[in-house]
Amino acid sequence: MVERFQHIQSQIRHATGIASRPRGSVQLLAVSKTKPASDIAALYRLGQRHFAENYLQEALLKQQQLAAFNITWHFIGPIQSNKTKPLASHFDWVHSVDRLKIAQRLSEQRPDYLPPLNICLQVNISEESSKSGVSIGKLPDLVAAVSALPRIRLRGVMAIPEPESNYAKQRQPYRQLYLAVQQLNRPELDSFSFGMSGDLKAAIMEGASMVRVGTALFGKRL
Q1: Is 21 exposed, middle or buried (0-12, 13-18, 19+ CB in 10 A)?
Q2: Taking the CB of the first residue and of the last residue of the chain, which one, N or C, has fewer CB atoms within 10 A?
Q3: Global pTM value
Q4: Does residue 40 contact residue 67 with C-beta atoms inside 8 Å?
């Protein structure tokens, strides 16, 4: 795990340098779905602090097991309306908000004793029928509506483009979405949850502030 962690960090630093961006401007999110709490603890001891989960019940169990660790928890999976309360109560970030109803419920259910919940809007940038997310054309209206809600803080967008092996083609959807957000003229939207291990460099070149990496960090589950 040490070598994998160092390799991913090196990749991020290299891509950040090529993009002429400040060192440290890209946050690594360790995607720990299906991985045991012991793996998360091991990576935490190496210095990783941000962990992302896809499945709510699995995440809540790990949070109990790792309560002694100062982890920043991100949720990146699909959201059902009846699961918003625990999301609002137990996470620091939610990346997969794709409609106003979900944002409203998270806002209403975020406890007063916690800081506002950081959220990203998931955009279906490749317009795939199998994926969740708002269309890029409807993004401005959703941003305006969600920004007005209390107890949450709209930070930016998340995207999972259609898989592509060609580097130039990997960059295109991220560039399109980044530019669309810039055109909204909302400086508070400073977070771009772009890229995984297969397109990490392309995502960073096009403005990613957070990259989501799982198997390349933890290894394949036996």
Answers
A1: middle
A2: C
A3: 0.95
A4: no
